[in-house]
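WARN no homologs supplied; continuing
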Amino acid sequence: MSPGPADAATPAVSAFYDRFPYPGDPLQDGPPPGYNWRWCYPCVSSACTGRLPEPGPPPRLLDAGCGTGVSTDYLAHLNPGAEILAVDISPGALELARERLRRSGGARHCSSLRLENRSLLELDGEGPFDLINSVGVLHHLRQPEAGLRSLATLLRPGGLLHLFLYADGGRWEIHRVQRALTALEVVGDGEGLRLGRALFEQLPETNRLRRHHEQRWALDTVADANFADMYLHPQETSYDLESLFRFVASAGLQFAGFSNPEVWDPARLLQGELLERARALPDRERWALVESLDPDISHFEFFLSRGPLVFSDWEQEESLLEASGRRNPCLWGWPGATVLDPDLRPIELDDQELALLKALEAAPESTPIRLLPLGWSLTQLATVARTLWRRRLLLLAPAGTSAGAGM
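OK structure emitted
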């Protein structure tokens, strides 16, 4: 549908993904396995603003660079009633995406689903979108800044963009291998795949590059498409935190938070006085500290917004009690007391937490927290609801809006 390449790297990248459709996840009948809250619009809104989306028409979602449709499949199943446009420059990858969505039944959950062979740089007139997903795409453009500016124009005011970009630090060994294969004139085709795998077999067992691959990436690159995407891609850019924030600013967008915030918590690396000092740092300095201390961070995943966002922290008891809510839909194991949280970490719900979530599910939509028939004091209701919200098990909507908004 495009009159020509929208980016200098488009022909090479399109041909590469026709040879190696990515991601290499197998097709299957039925919905995709598990959940990924980053592709659930109500969960993303809650993560970035503290509250559910405001009521309105069905959300409009763009999957910019959908590949073989793994992300599109999740978007369709986790956002019932949504309008979804998924685009990719690889016809081969899109064939698999269409088959994936056909077999999963994803289209039945959408008010509209389009999968089209288009560049994300040539989508004028398609916006505005409430949520844009573009995972692992912009760093394969010759000019990533142009891609980000294009996506920014497609967001509605207050709309959210989820990005995944390569990080310099954790790809040190990968970059070395890429340079070595380029020097050996190994390219991204079937013969290149054979030679790339042979490289790791022939390097000494004590070699740092071989050890790093075997310990960190061997399982992830079992599929040929995944190996090729990591080591044989014709176009790639990566970032450190400083260049990442310059990149965000180039499109006039606002940083709305990491979608893997636990990675940027110094508590996983430090303790005692050093942890206290780290926590006292401003956000960007604290994140830069984590970047310096953890050389295994191989990517950045984060949300951006068009315009500043106001965050609801639900500290005022009165506002919280008047709010309505719903259980986070991205939990495994519900309605049991032992569940996997949105990041697939096992957690135990105590009796009160379990009771409140069950009462919410049994109550009419938009029932205020204070009216849940649990026989508790208002302070107890607010305390349990706030704890569930902080654990991201409960999504809240301010009084006057609906807890079903955006779904």
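The chain has a mean pLDDT of 95.
OK
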